[in-house]
Amino acid sequence: MFGISFSELLLVGLVALLVLGPERLPGAARTAGLWVGRLKRSFNAIKQEVEREIGADEIRRQLHNEHILSLEQEARKILNPLQQQPTPAETPITPATPAPAVSTATVEPTPATVSAPVTEPAATAAPAPHDPTPAPRAP
């Protein structure tokens, strides 16, 4: 952790034995160990407090961002009411008469059964892409 090797720790222990003596060295080692433990606990408590504050700040920031997003979505709804309504090109055109049932049997067309393609009246047709006016609605 501090880059202290075993030989350096042994040297510090020998110097402490010479300075303190054999009677006071165990008490000094115990006291040093208690102080180191207290420092570790206080550093861990400070670290947890900072992490808790950072987490609370992140939660506040996230709630603030969600609030801004909801306000932005409400503003879009107010400014663009046409997004809520389907455009005339998207609305399906329903025929006035029900469609005949289609059978799964294959029938070969004969000259008498072939007819010209049916076109819809111009009033119910979808407007051209370049025409900005909407098509009249059927009653």
UniProtKB/TrEMBL annotation:
Pfam families: TatA_B_E
Transmembrane annotation, as ranges: none
Domain of life: Bacteria
GO CC terms, sorted: TAT protein transport complex
GO BP: protein transport by the Tat complex
One function term, GO molecular function aspect: protein transmembrane transporter activity
Start and end residues of each stretch annotated as Disordered: 80-139
Chain intervals with Low complexity compositional bias: 86-128
Composition bias type Pro residues, residue spans: 129-139
Keywords, sorted A to Z: Cell membrane, Membrane, Protein transport, Translocation, Transmembrane, Transmembrane helix, Transport
Compartments where found: Cell membrane; Membrane
Membrane disposition: Single-pass membrane protein
InterPro entries to which the protein is assigned, alphabetical: TatA/B/E, TatB
Subunit structure: The Tat system comprises two distinct complexes: a TatABC complex, containing multiple copies of TatA, TatB and TatC subunits, and a separate TatA complex, containing only TatA subunits. Substrates initially bind to the TatABC complex, which probably triggers association of the separate TatA complex to form the active translocon.
NCBIfam families attached to this UniProt entry: tatB
Family to which this protein belongs: Belongs to the TatB family.
Function, as annotated: Part of the twin-arginine translocation (Tat) system that transports large folded proteins containing a characteristic twin-arginine motif in their signal peptide across membranes. Together with TatC, TatB is part of a receptor directly interacting with Tat signal peptides. TatB may form an oligomeric binding site that transiently accommodates folded Tat precursor proteins before their translocation.
Protein name in UniProt: Sec-independent protein translocase protein TatB
Organism, scientific name: Pseudomonas kielensis
Lineage: Bacteria, Pseudomonadati, Pseudomonadota, Gammaproteobacteria, Pseudomonadales
Gene name, Swiss-Prot/TrEMBL: tatB
